[in-house]
Amino acid sequence: MKFYLKTFLLLLALTGFNTLSGNVNLDSLKKQMRVLAGEELISSLCFLGEDLLDSIPEESFHYFKRADRIADSLQNINGKKQSLYALGNYYKTSGAFNVAKNYFDSSIHLTQPEDYQHRIFILIGYGGIKYEILQYDSAIFYLEKAKELAEKKDVTDVLSAVYNNLARVHDKLGNRYEANEYYLKAAMLFEKSNDFKNLAIAYNNLGTINLSFQNFTEALHYFFEALKVHNHKGLSKNLAMIYSNIGVTYYESDSLEKADYYYRKSLNISKQQNNVFDIARTFLNLANLHSHQKNFDQAIGYYDSSLKICREQGIEYGILLNKINLGELYYNHENYQAAAEQMEKALELISNYNLPEEEAELYLMLYKTYRKLGDESLALLNFEKHHKLRDSIAGESKNKVLLELQAKYENEKKQRKLVELQKEKLSAEGKYRFFLIVFLMVVLVFFIFSTLIILQRRRAIYHKNLAEKNNEILASKMETKDKELANFAMHMAGIYEVMVNISNEIRKILPLSEKTKTEKLNRIIHNLDSGANVNIWKEFELRFEQVHKDFFYVLKELHPELTPTEIKICSLMRLNMSSKDIATLTNRSVRTIENTRTSIRKKMNLGPQTSLSGYLLAI
User: Fold this and answer.
1) CA pair distance 604, 509, nearest whole angstrom
2) N or C, fewer C-beta in 10 Å, the chain?
């Protein structure tokens, strides 16, 4: 089974929703702050806090509050809008999204219309909140507004931040080609501005995108480019993550020795930096590696170490990943009870995340696990949930396409309105011609759009009717074949009965026959008794297999404990034959057939609500 979240790679490969502070020497900035005052001091405090936000949030909050107090004491509006924005970023990072939005609202209220750069920062902040609460379409809305404003007003300083965050949202939505394009744009701007810290991040992100395409060579190229920037510029933050991602790339391309080498480099750096999050991630990756190599005990040890850290630090996503991988490890080790327990716990956790594909895979894995445990009821329940979720995902995909078409149409509509405004200064005759053209375009687009919808609906109805008709034809053919089979079975039973009668009649005349003839007659009786039923059943079985392919094979695979007689009875029930007809056909009493049916139900572990005939029809 292939899970898309077997490692922490995609979770940590992307930086936080940010405005990208750039390259600054923090020690130098702290020294300069001793002689700074007023708005310059406020800006420096906010900048310093922003840089520490991911690593030391408490210290970051201290700098933001100090900046806010200074702005209040000086009644400095520019300083106040900066400190409010910075505090909004802190609360967003802390998960207090409503509080963060209030700070952003207050900050933008103080922002002058011509301060485009700060407005773009606020739009990125709104997009970040929507991203964190899984409202990705809303996040794209705010980021597209920020992109439009930055490109229109040529605010290139923050355009890289907009591209970087747009890439992150598209990657989350699975739009990896768009994500790759935006990361490339961001990387070009970072390189142009000598922003090496964020250039390394962009290279790392491009590596993860290429890895998702299974483009291992290109992924390694970008990861090593990120590593080169880190080593050349003496950067240490995210270094462990890059080594870990290189290890994952080698793991996915089956270069296991290299994967182990880079995982251990990542682990050593994480321990030196006392970064428990990276340590937990690397333990998980090492566990997956040993699981792949079938080193069960070592894999369990690493999973336990990763789980311990995740529990202590409250990293629920890490706990989820460990539970999924542990479940798969136990399943492959044929400890199905332990596998089911781990997967059920993972299922409880996965509901907190928007991961329908992975949730569907979990249900499928649980179905297989419960089948192995012999719990057909729970297996069926999980299989139904898997299919239901798969259908839901397919429906969402169709809706997404329709929404994209609608958005494209709305965008075209907005563009046309903009053209209308720009043409207002034209002469009356020119305006008339312009509005006429626009009207015709609208009518044309509406006509095309309506026609496409009508054609799509007609096509859907046609295909639906065609499928129903084909199903009816197939059902009719199958019913006819089943009737022919049943008639053949009854016919063969009649032949068998005639052969038995002949055998009995010969026995009656045996005492009256000569000795030489008696031996011949005994051979005839023996041939009739021993071969008749077997040959009739083989002929029936052959014809049955032609109609219902693999029925006997699947039935024996699912229920190997069934006797040949019970399998014969199952095949006749598959033809919807009654107990009375089966009794006649098999030369048994109706009561014997009913007892056999009860025995079959017990061996199949069917509940009282489950129809035996219905179950056999489904095979």
Assistant:
1) 48
2) N
State the sign of the Cα–Cα–Cα–Cα dihedral 419, 420, 421, 422: positive
Burial class of residue 45 (count of CB atoms within 10 Å of its CB; 0-12, 13-18, 19+): buried
Residues 70 and 88 sit within 8 Å (Cβ to Cβ): no
- Please, are residues 46 and 70 in contact by the beta-carbon 8 Å criterion? no
Distance from C-alpha of 83 to C-alpha of 105, rounded to nearest angstrom: 13
- Distance CA(345)–CA(354), nearest Å, equals 17
DSSP 140-182: HHHHHHHHHHHHHTT-HHHHHHHHHHHHHHHHHTT-HHHHHHH
Distances (CA, A) of 425 to 416, 422, 430, 440: 16, 7, 9, 21
1-47 pLDDT tens trace: 444 444 444 333 333 344 444 444 555 556 566 666 788 888 888 88
Contact 23, 194 (CB under 8 A): yes
> Confidence class of residue 219 from pLDDT cuts 50, 70 and 90?
very high
d(CA 323, CA 365): 13
**Tokens 């050593």 found at:** 268
Q: Letter for the amino acid at 267?
A: L
